[in-house]
Design brief:
With 306 residues, the protein is an alpha/beta fold. Helices cover 41% and strands 19% of the residues. It has helices at 2-5, 29-45, 58-70, 87-95, 123-137, 157-170, 188-201, 213-225, 243-250, 265-276, 294-300; strands at 18-23, 48-53, 75-78, 100-103, 117-120, 145-151, 176-183, 207-210, 235-240, 256-259, 284-286, 291-293. It has a six-stranded parallel sheet, sandwiched between helices. It has a six-stranded mixed sheet with strand order 7-6-8-9-10-12, sandwiched between helices. The radius of gyration is 22 Å and the shape is elongated. It binds beta-D-fucofuranose. Beta-D-fucofuranose binds next to helix 2 and strand 9. Pfam families: Peripla_BP_4 (PF13407). It is found in: Cell envelope.
Length: 306
Amino acid sequence: NAAATAAPATPAAAKKISLGFAQVGAESGWRTANTKSVQDSAKEAGFDLKFSDAQQKQENQIKAIRTYIQQKVDVIAFSPVVESGWDTVLKEAKDAKIPVILTDRAVDSKDTSLYATFIGSDFVEEGHKAGKWLADKYKDTKEDVNIVELQGTTGSAPANDRKAGFADEIKSNAHLKVIASQTGDFTRAKGKEVMQAFLKAHKDIDVLYAHNDDMALGAIQAIEAAGLKPGQDITIISVDAVKDGMTAASEGKINFIVECNPLLGPQLMQAVNDVVAGKQIEKRIVTKEGVFTSEDAKKVLADRQY
Ligand code: GYE
């Protein structure tokens, strides 16, 4: 009897799931925590993780995704550096029948069948939280409040959305004026450089709104070098709540931080398991997050993991 002598087929469960992950870069403390979360949870899930760092360049991410398609990985996940320009490569993945999961940042593709789900924060909401705190603080002001803004990477979902949510929240008070707004590319070095230029061009800055902690931390160096007190002479609001940002907040140098959770690894691995198992999953998975004043930051700093 042929069936009895044939070698048993390898059970499907014994094969490791392969996951190709195309990361944005290593531009911030948030990104470092996010990378660690992805790597740690892939290991824990027993996946074969192929990881690449695009150094904040879309062309590098597209190349990495094409390599994963050639390698026939089971699932591709990536955090798109900018929102637009993904349709072609996403169609290539679809044609190869490899499911794609977006993590952290969204794409603006009209065809939502190009990806299985998008796991990440609501960046517009984060902008609203930042703007609301400021609008409350200055609700009785009779004078103009001059705001400078350090935007994230040009064309990225968090930069577009954090700007929009904030603008929407402050527009009801004509005294709240954004007098300068430029990209600091989510990095400390660029945040410092652009803040230096802002301070040179404007003698009367009241508020800095930075789209992430790293740019705020760079700007703090520029503000101190100019002989001013961050958090006092200039009110500072940022987004992320990574450890260095929370430390600056606990010292009163950042006045308000909107949290953005980088620990997306566990949710991502769950989604990978589900798509491989052919389960129907939610098209949008939103992460939960809060806000911190200097006082709040002091209380939770010691337990902050990233
Ligand atoms: O806020 C910033 C990072 O996409 C949410 O990217 C992420 C942002 C985060 O560089 O620090």
